[in-house]
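Most newcomers find our protein records easier to grasp once they have seen one. A learned vocabulary of local backbone shapes supplies the integers on the structure line. Here is such a record, shown just as it appears in the course material:
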Amino acid sequence: MIKPCLALLLCCVTLGARAGELQSDLDDAKTLTLAPLHWKKHEWLRFAAGVGVVVGTLAADRKLEDAIQHNRSPFTDSFARRVTPFGGGRAMQISALLIGTGWLTHNENVLGAGRDSLEAELWAAGVVTPLLKDSFGRARPNTGQGTYRLFGFTISNPHESFPSGHATNAFAAATAIAAHSDGYLIPTIAYTLATGVAFSRVNDRAHFPSDVVAGALIGHAVARGLLAHHARVRVAPVVMRNGLGLTASWSMR
């Protein structure tokens, strides 16, 4: 779902970037890639807990899917049509809107929310989830090939049910945006939309419940990892004016 948009995302993230910002992007890539090598005990325990949740959901996939399909209705189908885009292009549009709004209003927090959410979407749904999709090769529910049918890694693998890219993208965006928000309103809206996306993918038989749970955890974890890294390297806000207007440094995040 995100693969065709990788080039667009990269352009958006680096558009107008200075050398220091590009260096920050490379630093983020290195940090995310090598993060497991530096995890402490509590981080491994958190990872194990996440795996446990996914495995537990996997064991209940058939019953959960049957229950959701039993209660499927024109209302849930209509809801799914309206909400699903927030796990794809709509989420990226919101991130771009936040970037534009923050840039025009000189609001560093809004700009940071847009940039962090877009970068989290890129890494979570554009890199991590596609690699796992190709590695597991799980058949989607609507193929009728069974709940636990895995084809493993093959060239041009058509079986990409696990994890859900839409759920990954929605929760990556929601986590980053919520982290830049005070109070409960915006986080509640963001996570409600993300949960709606996850439900919709199961309603439409595009994914099993464990697919969307795994995607949600991946999106949340990647966004939190990026936010934590940005917090560690944050310095005093740097705002530079040039002939084209306001340019905000990545150091503001």
About this structure: The first helix runs from residue 6 to 14. The beta strands are 239-242, 245-248. Confidence is low (pLDDT under 50) at residues 7-19, 235-253. Residues 17 and 195 are 33 Å apart (CA to CA).
